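[job 0412] stage=fold_complex status=start
inputs:
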Amino acid sequence: MTAKRILIVEDEKPIRDLVAFGLRRAGYEVSEAEDCRSARASLVDQRPDLVLVDWMLPDMSGLELTRSLKRDKETEDIPVIMLTARAEEQDKVGGLEGGADDYVTKPFSPRELLARIQAVMRRASPAGGEDVLEFEGLRLDDSSHRVTVGDAEVALGPTEYRLLHFFMTHAERVFGRGQLLDRVWGGNTYVEERTVDVHIRRLRKALEPYALDRLVQTVRGSGYRFSAREG
Amino acid sequence: MTAKRILIVEDEKPIRDLVAFGLRRAGYEVSEAEDCRSARASLVDQRPDLVLVDWMLPDMSGLELTRSLKRDKETEDIPVIMLTARAEEQDKVGGLEGGADDYVTKPFSPRELLARIQAVMRRASPAGGEDVLEFEGLRLDDSSHRVTVGDAEVALGPTEYRLLHFFMTHAERVFGRGQLLDRVWGGNTYVEERTVDVHIRRLRKALEPYALDRLVQTVRGSGYRFSAREG
DNA sequence: CCCGCATGTGACAGAACGGTGACGGTGCGC
DNA sequence: GCGCACCGTCACCGTTCTGTCACATGCGGG
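[job 0412] stage=fold_complex status=done
writing structure:
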């Protein structure tokens, strides 16, 4: 999975550090800027997937920055989340009007911020955002619906694709055939449990040329597991 | 399910007592620390499932504690909830408290605290969170269905796995063959009692390479026991 | 010290389980 | 309508697991 890049524009260093630290932990790649000038620079060469902008900035208000961002064809697709202090709350309307995709009032809980970031990105992703899972050299790009190993493309049927997607988002856990039917086929389909075996087989066969069939492991008596570690 | 352990790090005794009392009533196992020093100690030997940290602490700020927690591979998975006074939230803290998973502002209602605790724990467990039993270096991860000692994987058949799982969740107690048949095989199976012996044997054999077969002990005339203490 | 009973142990046959190739059916695009 | 891709099911097979037995071992009481 390519890490999503987030740019933080915030002049108060302690807060900036704090937020950056938290976001990095959550798996994002974070760059920081303390004013609009450097923010613009970062925007050009980092091409972040999302921008967090503080409302109050020394050289230009965050609102201004957002507006100009959204005016530029080059950057208008980048989602923006504004950070505002509670006192400034009445201005939130203005923030949204400026083109921000969402705003969060300080203080905010980490949960909340992460949730909003994800929500906003999800909304933006059809535009060009990427949704890539990677595991042991195996890449699954959900937006383009492609599975690749290096340059080669792995040909999968729809069911195998969903199965692999499910596994890649739930690695290291064992799932019984019933659970897989529930979660990959859908809760109210009735098919034989052994059908799962057959699709596991097909998935393995597709991964075999790359010696990645080992990732799909049988746990005798329980089901299957997707894992890098041999079992 | 073993009761979840919560560690409270808070210097003001009255508050600490109050919170601890409430949490114990809610069924948690609570340990307390009044500064970061003792918190660290508790972290090591208690391995709490969640930590509640006050923002203001005498020796080190709660923020520092949280950060160092999240930096350490050993403890980064333990969810942290920060407690902050309302006065502190405005100016200093913007948001992600150095990696805290959530935060609660004082004064808070017991309800809210409990709700957040549950939410955070729920979120922590399915993600990377695991269902891990550990005993004398022997690890049984039920979600991935793996039994390991250090890096090595212990190969167990289905029955041996269930047997070990049962023992690890019921250590230090003696079970007769009949009881084991009931609880590991299932209430309505009819098999010879001596069959238990054979599976005990197989389990021991699998643990032998790691000198852990000593954990499965025979109680002559009564049955078997899983225990670290010899005899 | 010896006996008797409880437990350890190796072997084995049947059952259960999962892997695999093949087949017929179905829906879709051409 | 035809061919193609995919799906679900089945039958068959090798492998692994399981329960049972027969025999070995060992502990404890007399």
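[job 0412] summary: Residues 194, 197-198, 200-201, 204, 218, 220-221 of chain B lie near DNA strand C (CB under 10 Å from a C1').
[job 0412] exit 0
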